[in-house]
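Reviewers of the previous submission asked for a worked example of the structure-prediction workflow described in the proposal, so we include one complete record here. The input consisted solely of the amino acid sequence. No template or homolog information was supplied to the procedure at any stage.
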Amino acid sequence: AQLLLEADKQLIKSDAQKAKIEQLLNESDSLGNFIDHVIIADSTSTATTAELIEAYKRFCERKNWTPVSRSFAEKMLPELMFMRFGVSKRTDVMRNGKNNRGYYGFAIRA
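From that input alone, the workflow returned the following structure tokens.
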């Protein structure tokens, strides 16, 4: 109890505990972290929703995180892209001669 009072009523955490907390917080916003660290603005590029979802799954695999479901990612991606970059999802991103949903002006970091 005395240690708790001396630490301003905060439990003292080891470096390993702090790292685990940080990892859990990042994983809880895995899609947001993906957007912040993998999607880059590039005026000459386009990215389809399908390409972004596949890149997101690979990002989570590298981090040993469980990705959100595909349907949830597809639902949240437009909102997060608008919040982060001020862009809306389009339906005219061309791939193999067909229109796809996606974004102009963005690329996936290798």
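The mean pLDDT is 89. We consider this example representative of the routine output the project will generate in years two and three.
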